[in-house]
Design a protein that fits this description.
The protein contains ten helices and 15 strands. By secondary structure, it is an alpha+beta fold. It folds into two domains: 194 residues, ApbE-like domains (T-fold), CATH 3.10.520.10; 103 residues, Orthogonal Bundle (T-fold). The strands form four sheets. The chain has an eight-stranded antiparallel β-sheet. A hairpin with an 8-residue loop joins strand 8 and strand 9. Helix 2 runs antiparallel to helix 7 and helix 4 packs parallel to helix 8. The longest helix is centred in the N-terminal third of the chain and has 16 residues. It binds adenosine-5'-diphosphate and magnesium ion.
């Protein structure tokens, strides 16, 4: 257990100031006669998908790669958004007990979501949807369910009841619905990383709390990712982690929420109660190759609290950093040595 260090604003710009590095193949090594200096020209783009600001920094990208990224984001939003009527998620949610055929990618996300739900004892549940629908953490209406409404919806939560059949079919019992808000951004970060890997000098992809770094900096040092200070204004960081070709995902109770009569309500719900999780964690940052797994597991960590989260991460061999409500920072074994030393 370590005391939280407040480096805060000092590290403000750490995230996007960093560069990334090359997959230099042996035959492209500069020789004494060659003039080939790799193109590391920086291009940046900002988009808005999934109710989230998406920022992409590319180094040495070919013409059109940025456009391909936005096209992929739009395509995933059309597939996975619960507010787009024709999306796979909407079709599942309005099927009323009938079987629907979905895209292979939607099916794969649900397959993994079910696994993660099972290994987190249901703390992560995409079938939380009937409950998330009763809360509004985004539009300023401060909408929340009555105790009666909330309790009546609890039996509709349970990812083991999502039936995944052959040929990408999905069947949900009538009344149940899904919300991929805790996992989809991770999946998309993985897919964008896949899209750019090997096609540019380096990249930093950021979808809200999901950051994927491809390669390292042109000078060979690791990419640094700022970790949001749970108590500070947006984009103030209390520390940085250094990674290479991995995703750094933070889930935090400070992300979305509202305060009513002095009580703060936030967007990570405990599937057992349907209320915002009341654990001792305000944020969880995980470093993994799979941004999708990190996204779902980070959400689960917040729900289960520090003690269970550390056990879960150790069992799954996942590296992470947790911040408690009283400002302590807890690390999985070896985390500071592996990720907090500039190399
Ligand atoms: P963010 O979307 O801010 O990055 P998370 O990854 O933690 O944060 O996901 C929170 C979102 O996931 C919520 O907005 C909601 O859509 C959904 N969600 C809330 N509670 C849970 C839960 N216990 N399990 C799965 N998804 C959840
Ligand atoms: Mg998540």
């Amino acid at each position: 257990m370590k005391k939280k260090k407040r480096i805060a604003a000092l590290l403000l710009a750490a995230l996007l100031l960093t560069g990334c590095a090359a997959k230099t193949s042996p035959d492209s090594q500069p020789s004494s006669t060659a003039t080939s200096v790799p193109d590391t020209t920086k291009s940046t783009g900002v988009g808005f998908y999934f109710d989230t600001v998406v920022t992409v920094t590319l180094y040495g990208a070919p013409e059109g790669l940025m456009d391909e990224i936005w096209a992929a984001c739009a395509q995933y939003e059309n597939l996975l958004s619960k507010t787009i009527a024709t999306s796979d998620v909407s079709r599942i949610n309005t099927a009323d007990g009938q079987t629907v055929t979905v895209d292979a990618e939607t099916w794969e996300i649900l397959r993994r979501a079910k696994e993660i739900s099972s290994l987190t004892g249901g703390a992560f549940s995409v079938t939380i949807a009937p409950l998330t629908a009763m809360w509004d953490f985004t539009d300023g209406t401060n909408r929340m369910p009555t105790d009666e409404e909330r309790i009546a919806a609890l039996p509709l939560v349970g990812d083991s009841r999502i039936e995944l059949g052959e040929n990408n079919t999905v069947t949900l019992p009538a009344g149940m619905q899904i919300d991929l808000g805790g996992i989809a951004k991770g999946y998309i970060a993985d897919k964008v990383a896949e899209l750019v890997r090997g096609r540019c000098y380096g990249a930093i992809i950021s979808l809200g709390g999901n950051v994927y770094t491809v390669g390292d900096k042109p000078d060979g040092s690791l990419v640094s990712v700022g970790i949001q200070d749970p108590e500070g204004p947006t984009n103030t960081y209390f520390t940085v982690v250094y990674t290479k070709d991995k995703s750094v995902v933070t889930s935090g109770t400070y992300e979305r929420g509202f305060t009513l009569d002095g009580v703060r309500y936030h967007h990570i719900l405990d599937p057992k109660s349907g209320l915002p999780s009341a654990s001792d964690l305000v944020s969880a940052t995980l470093v993994m190759e799979s941004s999708m797994d990190a996204d779902a597991l980070a959400t689960a960590c917040i729900v289960v609290g520090s003690e269970e989260a550390l056990k879960l991460l150790a069992a799954q061999k996942v590296d992470g950093l947790l911040v408690t409500t009283d400002g302590q920072v807890l690390y999985t074994e070896g985390f500071p040595e592996a990720y907090m030393v500039s190399q």
